[in-house]
Amino acid sequence: MRSYNVIGLMSGTSMDGLDVSYVKYTKSKNNEWSFDVLYTESYAYEDEFILELKNATKLSVPLMLQLDKKIGQLYATLVNQFIDKNEIQTEKIDVIASHGQTIYHQPENGFTYQIGCGTTLSFLTGIKVINDFRTKDVVAGGQGAPLVPIGDFKLFNKLADSFLNIGGISNVSFMKNNEIIAFDICPGNLPLNRLVESKGLRYDKNGELSKSGEINFFLLDLLNKLDFYSQSAPKSLGTEWLETHFYPLIKFDRDIENNLRTIIEHIAIQIGAILNDQKLKSVLITGGGAKNGFLIEKIKKYFDGEVILPSEEIIDFKEAIIFGFLGALYLENEPNTINSVTGASRNVVGGILHTPN
Fold first, then answer.
1. Which of 20, 240, 248, 306 has the most CB atoms less than 10 A away?
2. pLDDT band at 134, cuts 50/70/90?
3. Do 181 and 245 fall into the same domain?
4. Residue 21 sits in a domain of what CATH number?
């Protein structure tokens, strides 16, 4: 039996902050994995920094490289704070597993790009770092996403028969013919958060603004007819797709409540359709969207099976926990991507290791 103590870092497409987990992962003699969450913390980004991340695609190469180092420095500062607060002995931490911040995700063009310099993070914390988990899968012909499903089925498989994460993007994983299948279903919090920015809010708490609006059925029909929904898996979404295909259909300067209401309905319809089409009996929902009571209500309307909401810690930190797990798999030299999920030619051990010395 072997175990690894890993700090997992997750900053998703919502770009609102950094989730940090410190978890002990244990591999039994019969190759089954278990985990024990020791500490968790979420650090919100300053508004100015969020704006900097959102405008990153417009940066020149030198400024992009500068931002890459800046994020590495920020991660290091927050990790060191986390370690100090929880009185963790640095020498007992095997590795930091960092997702980084996705700036470009274009697997169809052969690349995906997450920034947050691993070398900087490793040097400033004195701890080994694994990052860039997606690139090798893309090189192998895969989407480089989603990567969370391997953790769903190795760590959480006793809780439900499918797993839905509603972050900036909504993605699902489930078993079919003894293979793990996973893909992005539709947008999640990203368009909802963007709409409420005009009201000085970061998100629509519990879906209250959405609930006050009325459905724009013309817009709903346009959204439901987007080509992505007729494509077969494996498939994934990025902010580029939203900017090109989704956002041009929405008026962000007016009808905020009605647009929110319509997009909530759209998300619930797309999620319900996929879950029902796969004849799934239960779904475990995590991510920020799991806290949107109105969205959950609508998913229950469209999904025929049971909706399960886990503990708040799992809702908030499941992706950080699983990216930490990807780091443990890397240390075991065990594949941490699944080609039946990503479409790659084979399973690979993704990630790049950085050492402080």
1. 20
2. very high
3. yes
4. 3.30.420.40
Q: How many domains does the chain have?
A: 2
Segment (H or E) for 106: strand 101-106
In angstroms, the Cα distances linking 134 to 37, 197, 228, 298, 326 are 24, 30, 21, 32, 11
pLDDT in tens, 5-54: 999 999 987 788 999 999 999 999 999 999 999 999 999 999 899 999 98
- Give dist(CA 305, CA 281) in Å, integer: 5
Q: Is residue 200 part of a domain?
A: yes
Which alpha helices (H) appear in 114-184, and where do they start and end? 118-125, 135-139, 149-155
Is residue 14 within 8 Å of residue 32, measured between CB atoms? no
Q: What 3-state class would DSSP assign to 177?
A: coil
State whether 173 and 274 are in the same domain. yes
Per-residue model confidence as pLDDT tens digits over 316-343: 999 999 999 999 999 999 999 999 889 9
pLDDT tens digits along 47-92: 899 999 989 999 999 999 999 999 999 999 999 999 999 999 999 9
Domain that holds residue 111: 2-144+345-354
| Of 267, 263, 272, 253, residue with least CA distance to 215 | 263
End-to-end CA separation in angstroms for the chain:
29
Same domain flag for 207 and 296: yes
With 0-12 / 13-18 / 19 or more C-beta atoms within 10 angstroms meaning exposed / middle / buried, residue 20 is: buried
